[in-house]
Amino acid sequence: MSNLPPSQWLYIPKPNPQATLKLICFPYAGGSARSFSDWQNTLPHYVELIMISMPGRGSRFSEPPADCMDILTNTLLDELTPHLNADTIFYGHSLGARVAFEIQLKIKKRGLQGPCHFIASGSANPGKDRSDKNVYLLNDADFIEELKSLNGTPPAVLENEELMALFMPVLRADFKLADTYRYTGPEQLSCNISVFAGKKDEISEQAQLDWQNYFSSNFSFEYFEGDHFFIDSHNEQVGQAVNNIIAQIHNGNLLTQVS
Known about the structure:
The protein has nine helices and seven strands. By secondary structure, the protein is of the alpha/beta class. The protein has a seven-stranded mixed sheet, with helices on both faces. It starts with 9 loop residues before the first strand and ends in a 9-residue tail after the last helix.
């Protein structure tokens, strides 16, 4: 068993103190650990899976949601620091990719050990201006229509007024994080980066390819079937791609750039 105290921010289904590699996963807006939990069954024995558990959902449903990127990432980094004692892979989907990127900037600033590989999944680059959308400011009816268009919330939830009344504050907080965050600094990170993209995602290919501008090491790009939420609709295939990266790291191979 791990000697580390439990954290409400981190869900670790199978603590592994002997792990030589840790896969740390950050969910999309409105998402949870369920997008990554099935991967536990296929990961190599030397990998520990750590999933970020956000307030306002699951076992933390009664807690107020986070809506400030700076406070959120400072808190998460404090929680993650004891776990940065081995090689790590950061995986973030959509909003989760920008949260993971911001944490990496703070890791570098604090002089801590950053990830050896970053997977930015279903996300435009962190410098893209999203302030023109401001989805979180829409009235309830328009906000729900936007959720429908994204195709990531079950219709049974969207059509249930009581459920939506419960989840609306969480979703608005997440969209506030997504719509108001933009990185404008000159910093480049040195770890390898892979970008995963859905073939039918509304995010442009270029907006995703531009992630490479924020990293100085090896870059790869891979398409998956599905829309913005391909991580859920094609979870097994994404998990296999993650395992391929893990195998390359374990074997000491570097990814080559894909244009």
